[in-house]
Design a protein that fits this description.
Layout: E1 2-6, H1 12-25, E2 30-34, H2 40-50, H3 59-83, E3 87-91, H4 94-104, H5 109-120, E4 127-132, H6 135-145, H7 157-173, E5 178-182, H8 187-202
Parallel strand pairs: 1-3, 1-4, 2-3, 4-5
Helix pairs in contact: 1-8, 2-3, 3-4, 3-5, 4-5, 4-7
Bound molecules: thymidine-5'-diphosphate (TYD).
Thymidine-5'-diphosphate binds next to helix 1 and helix 4.
């Protein structure tokens, strides 16, 4: 399982689509999934989380809903796909809970880890890539994209500045599992770095994907 994570508007959507294309073009079986969501039941929970006003849930309720969705996603999508010998590429995973609810949302990493162990156990993705860029630029991109899923975007600049620092802090704890990519560059440059990193890490020879953006 390869996870691509980062602040809202960091380009995870386009980069994960391209990455899936690289795997498929390289003859490897892979799926692209996302959190919150990624299975029919988890997508139902996603709808609750990403719409409405920021105050609708506090951080603890968000965390519990994220983990309810995560467990459904793992059980119904991720684990069966890995068991079938395929690659799983996920747009966000548990580090979003650590960064958004744990650090930016003030619950503390300890609380997230306790819920994590309870609902997920010791399963870990093989690699987590953090797309890093200044949160102001990322939020401008996210606003331009529009759509109704803006509950988290409305939490404001300070919250998102903390989210960015949180991802960097989490990544620095374990360089064997986490890699940070500078996402304040063109889509082509970022996807090239991403593919190079994955080729090195997993001894693959993927080419940069050119999925419709
Ligand atoms: P996502 O669809 O990835 O949003 P975007 O495409 O704007 O990056 O995720 C929706 C929101 O959910 C996003 O603002 C981050 C938030 N989130 C959490 O707060 N905790 C989590 O555990 C996850 C998976 C997402």
């Amino acid at each position: 399982m390869i996870v691509v994570d980062g602040v809202d508007g960091s380009g995870k959507g386009v980069q994960t689509r391209r990455l899936l294309q690289s795997f498929t073009d390289g003859g490897l079986e892979a799926i692209l999934t996302r959190e919150p969501g990624g299975s029919p039941a988890a997508e139902d929970i996603r709808e609750l989380l990403v719409t409405g006003e920021p105050e609708k849930w506090d951080s603890m309720t968000e965390l519990l809903l994220m983990y309810a969705a995560r467990r459904a996603h793992l059980r119904d999508t991720v684990w069966p796909t890995l068991a079938a010998g395929k690659w799983v590429i996920s747009d966000r995973y548990a580090d979003s809970s650590r960064a958004f609810q744990g650090i930016a949302g003030d619950l503390g990493l300890d609380t997230v880890e306790r819920i994590h162990r309870l609902t997920v156990g010791d399963f870990e993705p093989a690699l987590v890539v953090i797309l890093d860029l200044p949160e102001k630029i990322a939020l401008q991109r996210a606003h331009r994209r529009g759509g109704g899923e803006d509950r988290f975007e409305k939490k404001g600049d300070d919250y998102h500045a903390r989210v960015r620092q949180a991802f960097l802090q989490i990544a620095s704890r374990d360089p064997s599992r986490y890699q940070v990519i500078d996402a304040d560059r063109s889509i082509d440059q970022v996807s090239q770095s991403l593919v190079e990193l994955i080729n090195t890490r997993f001894d693959l020879e993927l080419a940069t994907g050119r999925a419709p953006d």
